[in-house]
Amino acid sequence: MEMRTTMNKIAILTDSSCDIPQALADKYGIDIMSFHILLDGVDYLERVSCTNEEFYDLMRQAKGVPSTAAITPIQFCEKYCEYVDAGYTDVVHITINRSGSSTYDNAVMAQGMLREERPEHKMKIHLLDSHTYSMVFGWYVCELARKLRNGAELRHVIGEFNDKMSQMEIILGPYSLRQMKKSGRISAAAAFAGELLGLRPIITLIDGKTVVENKVRGDDKVIPAIIDLCKKRTAGLEDFEYMVAHTGIKQGEELRRACKKAFGQEPVTVFELGGVVSANTGPDTIAITYTGKRR
Known about the structure:
Radius of gyration: 19 Å
Keywords: Lipid-binding
Structural class: alpha/beta
Largest sheet: 6 strands, mixed
Distance between the termini: 33 Å
Strand order of the largest sheet: 11-10-9-14-12-13
Protein name: DegV family protein
Organism: Candidatus Faecalibacterium intestinigallinarum
GO molecular function: lipid binding
InterPro entries: DegV, DegV_C, DegV_domain_contain
């Protein structure tokens, strides 16, 4: 949780939507606050109550669909107070996409509460909206922490992070539309037609916005469609890197192999979508995330 640059004592804080593996969080001293997920009347604390694989199985067996609860202003204020008491000079707080969650706004409210509770504090809170989800920002939170540990200037590192987030794109391929319909990512009519006709949407998440870019018929068309769209969106880029995401299904490894063949390089990492993200995408989903063109 702690790193020092010159005379500063800096905390790195994020939420469990980052999907950073605990080993990496421990390695880089990243503090992660968990979301609550409600499913069939049971309250699950992400990263604590069950593993990703267990949560995927719970979703497949559930009668209803999961809902998520953002971390509250009070919880954030309590965390900030802990940092003040521990003598931190700075907190870099990175949140899930602001347009898809109240988390960022709750953190803003918490800063006001902190000023009331600890008016004497001089700790600086650098609140960053990732504009995205999962390891799409989690990987670069780790990079931010690593650079700070190596003595990089805080302002410079934050600028690099924001610049990287402005380029990140996700292409998503859900094999089931149940959660996507419930979360509002696609309409009920589109979900009904999709299930009836065997259509699978190919979806982009860019700058916090969700767009159905294409529909393909049959599960075997999903991976080729994802790769084809990625190639189109990254044509002409010199520095291309990508990551593969999945929900523990065999298509995750199939996507990795297909991407390696198509792009001539391995992904930076392969990761599982956590509870908060898969609560919206469903338990049978694959995705590729990559550095796109500057916007």
